Structures are given as structure tokens and as C-alpha cells.
């Protein structure tokens, strides 16, 4: 006779895996995606993305990306080259195979504050139509889904660097600023309407290319007004962003520039927006613009930012042939060319420097004048550029009688 197994000898019951809260899906092959080719992985760029930005998100040295792209695709780019939508950057093969191909969020989404939501309709500029959300207060996936009225997180959440293919569980506590992707159905909730009212950077940070407030308000703690404040009036000075050709092959790269202008007409719309007529410096007539817009900055009148483009003739007269030694340089350089630029993040007076021991242009470097404002780097103190804003020096207290 066979004795039945006692309870303590019985095999343990298999435990069911906790249910995941990530929906089904598959990897895509559009802007923001990493795709595999015979030569190795490639990243498909959105409009205006730079190799430096892509390298930072993927934790790969930008110089390595530039070298691989030149060898694999024959394109000679720079770290700050703004690329066309659909352009490919070559990436090194990962040490361990990816569970899922990575997805890079757009730059604007990476600059959100915790608790904010980013969404743009899919278009030809590389906006992918996804909804990116940054967690706060140790949110759990279940709490996020309840807040936005959806059943699960989008599959593309697994492709973000935060998860790298690991499925989060319903009760997992996510760190502040962890990014997830939500289904587009979340946009119908009241929470999505509130979360899309994102904090804005100041005018100086917007002109540098920032659209979110994480660097301006959280890291640098700027107290200046938002870039679209105050409400424009007649003769208000503005700068408006347009896509321009940066002089290289249009297939590879594009740039954006901020042009100076004045408001010469305005009319209020039914939705509260303003239809502006802007007269650009050096141009006749006016162009119709809309306020508020991410592409229109209200210039402050407190002297913190220039209200017009620098005079090229005066800049050449002042800086041409000046001796400069930038930080980190051992030898002195000579200014051999002076240009005026309105390109985003490359704005103002641009100096081309040549080392004094060089006789040709093979190793010339370009610098923004605003980055050479230290008096110690100029051979003659009178050539040191004026600071961005006038310094306020407190008067000493009167001596006691």
C-alpha cells in the first residue's frame, strides 16, 4: 500500500507571476527609434536633434557617434549639428543584446518637471504622437493609470532608458522624474489637461533652445518671467524662431534662428490668443504671427537681453586682431574673423580664433563672445566684453562721526 504524501512533503505550488501593467505592442521604425542594420544599430533623428543630445540620452560619447557615422554613412557632422528628420546616426553595438530596441524621448519631454505631460500630434518633423509623463511623489503604475483613466501603460514604456525592457508591476514605486509612456486615450482625462500646462523657461533659456523648465527653474533657479510674458503691446520687441539652412548639406542638417522684430499690429482672437503683425529688422512689410507660441519670445526691457542684433561693423572694429586666450588654452590666439549669428544656442558675436603659432586655418576654432567674457582671457582689458546685465554694487555705509 502506498502512503499519500504528507503535507510537508508535497511539492510547493507554483506561484503565479504578478500581473504586469504594460500593454501589448511592438517596436516601431520611426523618428526617435533605434533600428538594427547589417552594419550595426542606427538612431533615426527627429528634426533639429543633435549628436550631442542623442549621445547624452544613450550614454554614448558624442565623438564616438560622430566617428561611427562618418565611417558607416560618410557624413561629417559636428556635435551641435541640428539634423533633418529621418537622418541616421550610427551607434556602437551594445555589450549585451537589447531586450527591446531603445526609444529616445524628444528633447522637450526630457526637460519637463515632475508631474507634467508632453504630447504632440504626429507630423513630418518627427513628433511621434506619444504621451510622455514624468512621475512624482513615488507614483506607482496603478496610480498613474487611475489618474489618467487608462487600463495600462503603453508598450513603449519598456523601451525607455528607465526600464530597458524590464516590466514594472502595478505596485512598484517609481522614482521622481521617471518617464513613462501613456496611451493616447489618457488625453481625454481632466488630469491630462492639467498636466499639459507645463512650466515655462525664461526668455534667455528659451533662446538657448529649452522648451521645458527643468534647467531654468529647477537647476539654475531663474526668477525671470516666462518667455511669453508680459502680454505683447504695440512696439514690443520680440524674437521669432524660424528654420534656416546652416550652410551644410540640407540632407544632413538644419538649424533654427531667432530673428529680431517689433510688433506693429495686434488683434485678439476668440480663443484669447493674439494675432500679431511683426516687422522684422531690416525687412519691409510685416509677417503674421500668433501669441502665445513656443516660437515667439517677448524680450525683457530690463537690459538682461539685447533688443537688437549686434552691429557687425562695430564688432569687427573692436575685436578684429585682438589677442585672446580661452580657458583651457596654453597659448594665446588671434581673432581672425568676426561674424554675427542668430542661430539658436549659437547667438551673438562669433569670433574665429587662430593660435599665434599657426600660419593657416587648419586648426581655427570658433567661440561665442558671451563665452569669452572673462577679463583674464583678453590681452587688453578694454576689449573685455560688457557683462550681460549691469552689476549693482551696494554703496558702503557712511563712516561714523
Name a few traits of the molecule:
21% strand, 401 residues, Membrane-bound Lytic Murein Transglycosylase D, Chain A, five-stranded antiparallel beta sheet, four-stranded antiparallel beta sheet, Thrombin, subunit H, alpha+beta, 15 strands, single chain
Q: Please, could you describe this protein's structure?
A:
The protein has a 5-stranded antiparallel sheet. Helix content is 14%, strand content 21%. The chain is α+β, with helices and mostly antiparallel strands. Among the domains are: 69 residues, Membrane-bound Lytic Murein Transglycosylase D, Chain A (Roll); 62 residues; 72 residues, Thrombin, subunit H. The relative contact order is 0.09.
Determine the N-to-C terminus distance: 116 Å
Query: Averaging pLDDT over every residue, what do you get?
Result: 83
Oligomer category = single chain
The assigned CATH architecture of the domain at 312-383 is: Beta Barrel
